[in-house]
C-alpha cells in the first residue's frame, strides 16, 4: 500500500532540496503498453486496472550537497520536468520509473552515471495571474511542452491522490544493474487544478501514443525539506535494510 508519509528515514542524504510550484498531470494507459518501456526487474504498478503516466513540472530550490550547512545558499532555483510511471520491483516495493527528465541545470546531468534519464533544456516556470505557466524544450531540438494550469482549492487526499503523488524511491538501470534512490520529505500539500492549455511531445518521444482522454490534475505549493539518499544497486539496498 502506498503511504502518504515517507517509508524510510534518509539518515545520510547526499542531496537536500525543495520541490515547489509542482503540478501533477496524469493519464491512464494500458498496462502492457507501459510495461514494454520498463527494464527487467520492474513491473507496472496498476491502479483501477490501469498504468498511469505523469507529467510533473516543478521548480528545484535550495539544491545543495548534504554536507553543506543550511545557512549556505544552494544553487539558484531552476525548473525541471519529468515524465514518469509507477512500478514495483521483484520484492513488491513500489517506486518511480522516470521515462525522461528535462532539466535547466547542467549540474544535474551528473546523475546520468546511475541511469537517471536527464536531458538539458530551456525550461521556464512562472505565474500568470492566478495560473502557473510551464514551458520547456530540449537543447538541440526534440520534445517540448507548454502547460498553463490553474490551481484550485486545497484538498484532503483520497487514496488515489496519495497513490499518484507519494512515492519514496526511484529506480534506474545502468551497467546491467537496477539501482534504487530513496527519498524523504514531508507529505505533499495538494490542491485541485484545471488545465487552461497543454501541448506536449514528451509522451511520443519515449515511445507512448499521445494521451487519450482528460487527465487527472493536482497542484502543490511544494515540499521544502527533501532529502535524497545514496543510490545503490537494489540487491545491496536490500541487504542494508535487512541489517538495519
Helix content: 10-25%
CATH architecture: Beta Barrel
CATH superfamily: Acetoacetate decarboxylase-like
Strand percentage lies at over 45%
What is the name of the CATH class?
Answer: Mainly Beta
| Quantity of strands, as a count | 13
The coarse silhouette is globular
Q: Average the pLDDT over all residues and give the rounded result.
A: 93
Number of helices: 4
pLDDT under 50 segments (min length 5)?
Answer: 238-244
Structural class: mainly beta
Biggest beta-sheet profile = 13 strands, mixed
> How far apart are the first and last residues' alpha carbons, in Å?
22 Å
CATH topology: Acetoacetate decarboxylase-like
Q: Using only CA atoms, what is the Rg? A: 17 Å
Give the domain tally.
Answer: 1
Strand and helix map with partners:
Elements: E1 15-29, H1 31-35, E2 43-44, E3 51-65, E4 78-88, E5 94-103, E6 118-128, E7 131-138, E8 144-154, H2 159-165, E9 169-174, E10 177-184, E11 191-200, H3 202-205, E12 216-228, E13 232-233, H4 234-243
Parallel strand pairs: 5-6, 5-9
Antiparallel strand pairs: 1-3, 1-12, 2-4, 3-4, 4-5, 6-7, 7-8, 8-11, 9-10, 10-12, 10-13, 11-12
Task: Describe the structure in brief.
By secondary structure, the chain is mainly beta. The chain has helices at residues 31-35, 159-165, 202-205, 234-243; strands at 15-29, 43-44, 51-65, 78-88, 94-103, 118-128, 131-138, 144-154, 169-174, 177-184, 191-200, 216-228, 232-233.
Amino acid at each position: 500500500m502506498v503511504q502518504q508519509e515517507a517509508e524510510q528515514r534518509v539518515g545520510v542524504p547526499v542531496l537536500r532540496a525543495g520541490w515547489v510550484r509542482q503540478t501533477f498531470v496524469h493519464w491512464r494507459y494500458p498496462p502492457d503498453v507501459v510495461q514494454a518501456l520498463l527494464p527487467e526487474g520492474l513491473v507496472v504498478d496498476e491502479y483501477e486496472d490501469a498504468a498511469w503516466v505523469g507529467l510533473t513540472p516543478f521548480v528545484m530550490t535550495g539544491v545543495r550537497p548534504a554536507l553543506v550547512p543550511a545557512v549556505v545558499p544552494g544553487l539558484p532555483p531552476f525548473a525541471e520536468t519529468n515524465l514518469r510511471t509507477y512500478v514495483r520491483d521483484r520484492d513488491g516495493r513500489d517506486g518511480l520509473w522516470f521515462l525522461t527528465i528535462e532539466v535547466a541545470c547542467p549540474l544535474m546531468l551528473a546523475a546520468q552515471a546511475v541511469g537517471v534519464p536527464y536531458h538539458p533544456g530551456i525550461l521556464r516556470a512562472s505565474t500568470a495571474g492566478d495560473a502557473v505557466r510551464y514551458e520547456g524544450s530540449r537543447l538541440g531540438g526534440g520534445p517540448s511542452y507548454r502547460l498553463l494550469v490553474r490551481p484550485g482549492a486545497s484538498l484532503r487526499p483520497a487514496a488515489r491522490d496519495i497513490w499518484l503523488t507519494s512515492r519514496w524511491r526511484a529506480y534506474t538501470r545502468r551497467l546491467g544493474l537496477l539501482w534504487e534512490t530513496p527519498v524523504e520529505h514531508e507529505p505533499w500539500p495538494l490542491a485541485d487544478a484545471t488545465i487552461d492549455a497543454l501541448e506536449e511531445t514528451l509522451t511520443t518521444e519515449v515511445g507512448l501514443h499521445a494521451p487519450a482522454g482528460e487527465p487527472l490534475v493536482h497542484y502543490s505549493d511544494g515540499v521544502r525539506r527533501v532529502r535524497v539518499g545514496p543510490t545503490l544497486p537494489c540487491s545491496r539496498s536490500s541487504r542494508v535494510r535487512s541489517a538495519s
